Amino acid sequence: MKSIIYVLIGVIFGIVLFKSEAASWFRIYEMFQFGSFHMYGIIGSAVALGILTIKVIKRRKVKSIFGEEIKITPKNEGFKQYIFGGIIFGLGWALAGACPGPMFVLFGAGFMPILIVILASILGTYVYGLLKDKLPH
Amino acid sequence: MNFIYEPWPWYISGPMITFIMFLLLIVGKRFGMSSNLRTICTICGAGKTSKFFQFDWKSQRWNLLVIFGIVIGGYIALNFLSNDTSVKLNPSVVSKLNAMGFADAGNNYMPAQLFENHAFRDYKSLLLLIIGGFLVGFGARYAGGCTSGHAISGLSNLQKPSLIAVIGFFTGGLIMVHLIFPLIF
To answer: Residue B142 half-sphere exposure, CB side, CA atoms within 13 Å?
Structure first.
């Protein structure tokens, strides 16, 4: 039963990513050219509403439907890992035109070369795991 | 109901993304897609060569189900919820893309030279897809999250690390599009 819930959440998310065109390589390029408000509107409105949502969850101590407390553990403090990792991610995001959610949307929509991007991103994750202790964090 | 078949505007799409984050929180999970890439490494046996991949991947099974759903969502959206998938870009962006050799800008969802099957036989396209994907996977794990984990959930939770990561995402994207694209396209 729980499995079906997770799949359904994914289905809705996939449809939103495709229909919003956030999964389009062209839209990502246009965003980095500041050519349209579209992507900024999506991220901006999602974050603005997200801030309110999380404030309410924390203030009301909302529980999950399974009765557990909703705990949001903050990320570790730091600077280098976030800025270096972020820049590397951003270079790839603009080049491949897809981040880890939209990649799978595009696979479902039948753009088969995205499989190369998915496999390469798994490889990139693996290489990070190998080099982790040698990188500045 | 015709609007369903049109591209969805930002003021529908953005709140829908917040709703997805909310749904995951309310079922006791967190919104973050790139951690699936780590889980897949673990399933493939990466724990033998690096401690980073030694964890019980079954605890992340739910998130793999989410990406399974995303694949189905992509299929449904393209095949049943769209009349015309061309992305109507800003005309000045279209002319920039045309000049770079992307003739289908404004008339397609994805550039044909990178995302249609003939890209599999084109060395340059293959190389760009491999480098792009590699950087996304490496960078997301290095930064501890991607667009969903940092830009949406992290910023919503007002986390400073996520703000730094998002500044990084945009710095990297701007460098790629403005400094590196002129060299490769």
So the answer is: 35
Domain that holds residue B181: 116-185
Residue A8's CB: how many other CB atoms inside 10 A?
Answer: 16
What crossing angle do the helices spanning A80-96 and B123-143 adopt, rounded to 10°? 150
Q: Is residue B109 part of a domain?
A: no
Residue closest to A13 by CA, chosen among A98, A93, A100, A102: A102
CB atoms under 10 Å from CB of B68, counted, come to 19
Looking at every residue in chain B, the average pLDDT score rounds to: 97
| Cβ under 8 Å to B: A residues 7-46 | 7-33, 35-46
- Please answer yes or no on whether B147 and A107 come within 8 Å at the CB atom: no
Interface predicted TM-score of the whole assembly (ipTM), two decimals: 0.97
Tokens of B138: 């490496």
Tell me the CB-side half-sphere exposure of residue A65, using CA atoms within 13 A: 9
Q: How many structural domains comprise chain B?
A: 2
Q: Both tokens of residue B113? A: 């030279």
Q: Are residues B185 and B130 in the same domain?
A: yes
> pTM for the complete prediction?
0.97
